[in-house]
Amino acid sequence: MGTILDEILTSLPEKADITISAFEGANIVLYTKNIEFFLDSSRVIRTLVSNFKKRIEIRLDPSLLMGEDDSKEMIKKVLPKEVGETNIIFDPQRSRVIIEAEKPGIAIGKQGEVLKEIKKQTHWIPIIKRIPAIKSKLIENIRQVLYENNDDRRKFLDKVGKRIYGGWKRNRKSEWIRVSFLGAAREVGRSCLLLQTSESRIMLDCGLNTAATDENAFPILDAPEFNINDLDAVIISHSHLDHVGLLPYLFKYGYTGPVYMTAPTRDISALLCLDFVSIAQKENKKELYGSKEVKEMVKNTICLGYEEVTDITPDVRLTLYNAGHTLGSSLVHLNIGNGQHNLLYTGDMNYENSNLLAAAVTKFPRLETAIMEGTYGGKTDILPTREECEKFLIKTIKETITRGGKVLMPVLGVGRSQEILLILERNMRNGEIPQVPIFIHGSVWDVVAIHTTYPDFFNSAIKKEIFHKDHNPFLSDIFKRIAGQKEMKQVTEETGPCIIMATSGMMVGGPSVEYFKQLAEDKRHSLVLTCYQGEGSLGRRLESGEKDINLAESGSKPNIIKVKMDVHSIHGFTGHSDRRQAINFMKRLYPKPKRVMIVHGEKSKCIDLASSIHQLLKIETSAPKILDCVRLK
Ligand code: ZN
Predict the structure, then answer these.
(1) I want to staple 360 with a disulfide (CB 3.0 to 4.6 A). Which of 329, 349, 456, 621 is the partner?
(2) Nearest-CA neighbor of 245 among 214, 283, 287, 284?
(3) Span from the CA of 436 to the centroid of ligand 1 (angstroms)
C-alpha cells in the first residue's frame, strides 16, 4: 500500500507531468510542467476530489512562471480600477501571488473572473486578502511574519500533512477515545481539554486564569496523560486569554506542531497575548513567555473559515462553526474515527443574535457528545434583554450630555466594546443621542481595526450595510483614537461632552483608571460599567456604592478621591448565553447528543445546568471535575 500521494499520482493522466507533490496541511498540491494541463485541469481535479475526498490543487512548476516584474505589471492591468489600494507579494516556492486589496470582492470578480484572468496571463495562483479599512500595525506585522517566512511555512505545512497522512488508509477507525479536563472544570478560567484517541493527541484551548495568582492560574499540564512531545494539534475556540493565554508558553516548551483557529481569532489572540506580556513587564512580574513565542504561535497557526472541514490527524476531522461570542469565535466539531464518534466543544458561546454577530449554530451533520459552557447556567442567571440594556444606556448618555458631562465606559478589549460601539453609532445616526465624539483608547482601537479586516465574520445585517449600502459603522468619524497622555489630557480638560471607552474593564489598572481619577469628583460625569466586576476590583467597589476611594499605593500618603460622578452598571450586553438561552441552545441542538458535559462555570452553576438539561431532555449529563477523564468510546 503506497502513500496517498502515490495513489493520486498514479491516477493522473500521463500528460500531467507532475514535478513536485506536497502537502499544505490537509491539502494536497501538485506542481505540473504542462501549461495546458495546468490551465485546463478542472475536470481531472473534480474526479480526484470526489474519489479521495481531499482538497487537491494543481499549480505550475515554479520554473515556468512569468517573471515577478512582468507579472506585477500584468496583474495591475487586469485588476479593475475600483479595487482601490493594492499590495502584491510573491510566494515563488509555492507559485502563489498574494494580492492585498481594499475591495477584495472586486479583485475576485464575478464568479472569480478576475482571478481566472490573472492565473491565465501570469500562471501564478492569486490569493486575495483584504487591506483593513482602519490601518493596523499588528495585522501588517502578522502578515509580514508570514510572508518573510514563506519557505519555513511551506516546510511546516508539508510536515503537518505528512503527520495527517502518515500510514494513510481510507476510513480509519479509532480503537478508543477519551477526553481529560485539564482546566475550566467547575470553574471559569484556564480552559483546556485533552482529547486522546488510539491515533491522536489534541488539545482544545490553552487558557489562563488571569484573576488567580497561584498555580491555579494554569491548566494542569503535568497530568500524566499529557506529554508535549506527543501533541499532534491544538485547537483554539476564541481569542480571550482564558482560552488562548497560555498557548505561546507551549512553544516556549518545545511544541512545534499546528494550531487551528479562525483568522480573526489568530490576530486578536496575538494582540491580547502581546498586551499581556507588556503589562507583566510594566508590573515587573515574571514573564511566562515573550513576543518571540507569540510570533511562533502566529507562524504555526493554520486558519480555517467556518464550516470548512479539514483533517487534522489520521483519525480526526475538524470543523469550526460560528459561536456568536466574539469576532471569529468558534464551536469546535470533531468527527473522530471516520464518523465513529462526533464531539462538539462549544468554547464560550452566545445563542442570541447580537448587534455584531449571529447566534451560535445548532445544526451539525452528526453529534454524540457535547461539552458546553455554563458561565450563566445557574437558576438565577436570567439577564435583562439587550433592548432593555440599550434603552438604559441611551437614557444615561442623554442625561449626562445634557448636563454637560462626559461618559466613561471601562471595557474589555474585545467583544462587548465593539457591540456597544455599534449601538452608539446607530443611535447617533438616528438622532437618539446628540452627536458627541466617542474616544477609543489604545488596544480597543486596535481590536476595532482587526474587525474591519474581517467583515465576513459579522452577522448578515451588518454585512449588508457594509457590502450593499457601503456604510461601515466602524468607520464613522464620531470615533476618535486616543493613543497617548497628551491626547488623554485634552479629552479630560479641554473637550466638552463626550463618551470615552478604555481598558481595563474591571478598572484594575490601565487607562480606565486614569480617566476615572480625572472625572470622578465632578457630578456632571457618569461611569458606566458593562462587564463582570471581579471581587476586590475598583469597579466592584464603585458598583457597590463606595464613595471615598483611596488610590494611593499601600504605604504611601492617602490619595482620597471623592466620587461624585454617577455610577451605573449594565450586565445584559454579555457575549455568553444566559440560562434560558443555554437551555434553548441544548433543545435546538441537532442531532440530539447522547451525552452532555458542562464546563466553564462556577461549581453550583455547572451542576445546576447539567441536572436541568438531564431533566428536560432525558439525556446523560454531568459536570466533570478538574482532572476527570471520560471515555467516549
Ligand atoms: Zn470568552
Answers:
(1) 349
(2) 287
(3) 31
Q: For residue 542, give the amino acid letter.
A: L
- The pLDDT, as a whole number, for residue 485 is 87
Give the Å distance between the CA of 190 and the centre of ligand 1.
11
User: pTM for this structure?
Assistant: 0.93
Instruction: Say how many Å lie between the CA of residue 576 and the centre of ligand 1.
Output: 8
Distance from residue 577's CA to the centre of ligand 1 (Å) = 11
**Least-confidence region, from 135-144, 246-255, 277-286, 489-498:** 277-286
Residue 488 CA to ligand 1 center (angstroms) comes to 29
d(CA 242, ligand 1 centre) in Å: 7
Q: Encode pLDDT of 201-218 as tens digits.
A: 999 999 998 777 788 999
State in Å: Cα 628 to ligand 1 middle.
Answer: 23
What domains can you pick out in the chain, each with its CATH number? 4-63 (3.30.300.230), 66-131 (3.30.300.20), 169-380+576-631 (3.60.15.10), 386-569 (3.40.50.10890)
Q: How far is the CA of 329 from the centre of ligand 1 (A)?
A: 8
Q: Is the per-residue pLDDT at 536 higher than 80?
A: no
Distances (CA, A) of 28 to 53, 297, 543: 11, 23, 56
Neighbours of 241 (CB within 10 A): 21
N-term to C-term CA, the chain: 28
Neighbours of 570 (CB within 10 A): 20
Which among 54, 64, 130 is positioned nearest to 95, based on CA atoms? Answer: 64
Q: Do the strands 259-261 and 233-235 form a parallel or antiparallel pair, or are they unpaired?
A: parallel
- Ligand 1 mean position to 348 CA, how many Å? 5
**Within a 10 A sphere around the Cβ of 295, how many other Cβ atoms?**
18
Specify the pLDDT at position 555: 77
Burial class (CB in 10 A: 0-12, 13-18, 19+), 120: exposed
Length of the chain: 633
325 Cα to the center of ligand 1, angstroms? 7
Q: Tens digits of per-residue pLDDT, 61-95?
A: 999 999 999 999 999 999 999 999 999 999 999 99
From the CA of 505, how far away is ligand 1's center (Å)?
A: 14
- Nearest in space to 108 (alpha carbons), one of 448, 461, 456: 456
Contacts of 162 (CB under 8 A, 6+ apart): 23
| Strand extents, DSSP E, 461-550 | 479-482, 499-502, 526-529, 548-550
Give residue 598 CA to ligand 1 midpoint distance, Å: 15
